[in-house]
Amino acid sequence: MDGDKGLVALSATVKHFLSQPKKALIGGKWLAAQSGKTFDVHDPSNGQVIAKVAACEKADVDLAVAAARKAFDQGPWPRMSPAARGKIIWKIGELIYHHLEDLAQLESLDNGKPIAVARAADVVLAADLFQYMAGWATKIEGHTIPLSVPYTPDAEYHAFTRREPVGVVAQIIPWNFPLLMAAWKLGPVLATGCTVVLKVAEETPLSGLRLAEICQEAGVPDGVINLLTGFGETCGAPLAAHPQVNKVAFTGSTEVGKLIVRAAADDLKKVTLELGGKSPNIVLDDADLELAIPGAASAIFFNHGQCCCAGSRLFVQEKVYDKVVEGVTKIAKAIKLGPGLDPNTEMGPLVSQLQLDRVSNYLQWGSEEGAKAMTGGKRRGERGYFVEPTVLVNTHADMKVYREEIFGPVVVAIPFKEVDDELIRRANDSVYGLAAGVFSANIGKAHRLAARLRAGTVWVNCYNIFDAALPFGGYKQSGWGREMGHQVLENYLETKAVCVNL
Ligand code: NAI
Ligand code: MG
Fold this sequence. Notes:
Blueprint: H1 12-19, E1 24-26, E2 29-31, E3 38-42, E4 49-54, H2 58-73, H3 82-98, H4 100-111, H5 115-136, E5 157-165, E6 168-172, H6 178-192, E7 195-200, H7 206-218, E8 225-229, H8 232-241, E9 247-251, H9 254-265, E10 270-274, E11 280-283, H10 289-301, E12 313-317, H11 318-334, H12 353-368, E13 372-375, E14 390-393, H13 400-403, E15 410-416, H14 421-428, E16 432-433, E17 435-439, H15 443-452, E18 457-460, E19 475-476, E20 479-480, H16 487-490, E21 493-501
Parallel strand pairs: 6-7, 6-9, 7-8, 9-10, 11-12, 11-17, 12-15, 14-15, 17-18
Antiparallel strand pairs: 1-2, 3-4, 5-21, 10-20, 13-14, 16-19
Bound molecules: 1,4-dihydronicotinamide adenine dinucleotide (NAI) and magnesium ion.
């Protein structure tokens, strides 16, 4: 954190990319905001400006939605053969692999995540998502349905369903996995033959812009993917409310998720949401602690705790509580903080000053309410948005740090006595239901817990395992619908029943 020595040198292509004016992609053309306004993008490790991007607003939203509408209603994309579409989607994945290092550098610089993580997880998972979705383009099938219509006993029918693209999609994504969230969103849009206006997060617009270039290079026709950079209220809100949009897909805070639903209500757009979490991670006293301790640490500290599925409530059975808390604390203390582009960094800065302030407020409230920090509990240094990995004990279920999503490297450790209804009640005692973890060597107990946890994902003896084939999403206020797997295709398809009188 002292100076920029030892950082990965940015490639010539990344430097060139950063030096070019950043515009919005609308109808296949790169356009400045209609207002001419731009805003700054920061390096979260030092607060310096690394790029200026277009500040898109309602006028840009109108143009982008019109372009997506035209591409859907008249363009080649929804009419192209599924195999031809699939090949283009596959090519996007190939090009992401080809530009892996550049994309990882951009992501690390813009978001602050360690370059090694960007390389091994974000970029590779994004490429894989497109290649997984490429295969679905040719496998979107309806059914034939035998009819028994009681009032036409003598008629014969051929009845079947067609799956058709829902139309023009508006997508709004956050900053924690900028490239990967764009991939999760765009992959199924392309596979189903929809067209889209994607608004990337104002904190981290760069990898999305680069991805849009890659999609053009792969052969996605003009107007199919339109990409806007801008703020939530001035760009996201008019996009979510736009009357020419058929469907909205949002990832971000639960608070804004509710605004999206209201914005979509007037004309009853289809909506899917991937929102917050306060996920329980449960360590039983029979667990292999060599697995459970690092597992519990990475459940919360991965991506600096800026994960909607972070294992932020760590329940540990009494017999092993001290040992697990001690082990996680030891790992937390040893985590090397630094800029994402330092190859030795294990945890980077939080994404923004705002996020630093939010997490700092929680740490302050926690300490005022009597929580004790085994380690961490404060900001690190004066430069950049670094927060120390923090393990809180002596918490109770009424505290803000216990109930609310902190979205930083802060875990509350909670002891429990028995694996019983009371444990299940406490684990499920949250407005959220995104993910959960169970560490146990007893396969029966682990499965019974997995079945009773009200969460969209349960990881057993692992955490934060993602795969393009595995559906992801929330129960309760963690969201509507699923990302990834074949389930995500449902978000972008209509079902048409065709009934033919033979
Ligand atoms: P946010 O929900 O405000 O932002 C996410 C996206 O929504 C961004 O693209 C933003 O521009 C857009 N947006 C904001 N207001 C909007 C509006 N009125 N209409 C349409 N779009 C709008 O999240 P933010 O402010 O970045 O973070 C706040 C908290 O949200 C975090 O502390 C964390 O708890 C949670 N969060 C959850 C995420 C998840 O993956 N589920 C990701 C990011 C944040
Ligand atoms: Mg916000």
